[in-house]
Amino acid sequence: MGDIQSRIGEQIDLLQQELQAMQSRVQALKNIVRIYSLLSPRLDLDETLTAIEDFLTGTFEFDAFSILLKHGREPELRLQRYSGFSRPKKASYKLADPNSIYYYIATELKPLYLADLSHITSFKLDDSIGDPSGSLLSFPLISEDSRLFGILNLKRNNTGAYNDSEIEMLNDVSSQLASVIQKTVLHQTTKELAYTDSLTKVFNRRYFDQRIMREVLRAKRYGRVLSILMIDIDHFKIYNDTLGHLMGDSVLRKIASIFEENLRRADVVCRYGGEEFVVILPEIQPGQARLVAEKLRHAVLNAPFHGADKLPNGQLTVSIGVASFPKDGESFADLLKQADLALYQAKNTGRNQVVSA
H or E segment at 67? Predict the structure, then answer.
């Protein structure tokens, strides 16, 4: 009788183990289905990352998490999403520091589990994971060609918070999330190339036409202001004819770079055509827009340009026309027309100046 009960007990244990394994597989399949539903219909990176944040915080128990992605070819990670801790002081983190946990992950391309952050001496911890306490799981986000393009950090405040089976399950989840993020990044990169001027690397006319319509509609809907700057390089044809088109191309690239260095991240620089640029300034009043324009004009005026002494006024300068919504027009076409008229006035009354509509 005892042997029969023992065998029955063993069979029950086996059935329970198989049931748990099946439940784990079912949960894993559910996670995969949910993860692939996170893809934004427009394959927008910001929307996809927001959906991933909701998925992670709603499905698993974490006290903090962060997602960092590589930016272009630079050996650094940029913090894209985080939760559970205050805003970090830095926005990017170097991958080349051999003392960093990110250097280890990028080199080994495998997960890193730190069961007690307060006793870690072999790695330098930074503020992209929150407080240096509790347990941390860091997963590499690896592309299909086996390259690191990001890192997912999952943190709990208590030490020794993850067991082997949970780490394995979360590793599977991170791999699926990596696939979702990579698809979105590839789509966005392709889209950006279509909207980028090949010479200056700022946005092109096609992008401007779409973006200005969206910005005007948004300003109307929420009762906000919007300004644009139309910018033309003075005597550019003379510069091109005198020094050649290669030098002219160099000037266009340098001026585009000067504009980007002197504007906010929210501002949008576009090459409008030829030697003309246009800048969209969301939520900027007319008076503020004029100050921004003057800042750009002075930045160009004070920058060294080879051969600028051969121009009529002995230096390379820009003229700028300023227009604002709704003061100068309530449609993007009116706004553009007023900025263009202001630029025309600036060009015809001496150049190297800012004129408001």
Answer: strand 64-70
Domain that holds residue 318: 205-356
* 325, part of any domain: yes
The size of the chain, in residues, is 357
Token digits of residue 323: 């227009």
Closest among 211, 245, 199, 357 to 293, alpha carbons compared: 357
What is the H or E stretch that residue 155 is in? strand 148-156
Domain count, the chain: 2
Q: How far apart are CA 268 and CA 62, in angstroms?
A: 37
Question: CA-to-CA distance for 108 and 140, rounded, in angstroms?
Answer: 9
Same domain? 215 vs 84: no
Q: What angle do CA 205, 203, 305 make, to 5 degrees?
A: 100
Helix (H, G, I), strand (E, B) or coil at 146: coil
β-partners of residue 271 are 277
Residues of the chain with pLDDT under 70: 1-43, 72
Domain with residue 279: its CATH number is 3.30.70.270
Q: How far is CA 83 from CA 58, 113, 130, 153, 156, in A?
A: 12, 19, 9, 10, 12
Which contiguous run of DSSP H or E holds residue 304?
A: none
111 and 130 share a domain?
yes
Looking at the chain, the whole-number percentage of residues with pLDDT higher than 90 is: 49
As a whole number of Å, the end-to-end CA separation of the chain is 99
Task: Report the side by side order of strands in the sheet with 318-325.
Answer: 268-273, 276-282, 226-233, 318-325, 354-356
Tokens for 207? 């992008």
**What is the tens place of the pLDDT at every residue in 45-78?**
888 888 888 888 888 888 999 999 987 677 889 8
Residue 127 maps to which CATH number? 3.30.450.40
SS3 at position 28: helix
CB 69 within 8 A of CB 150: yes
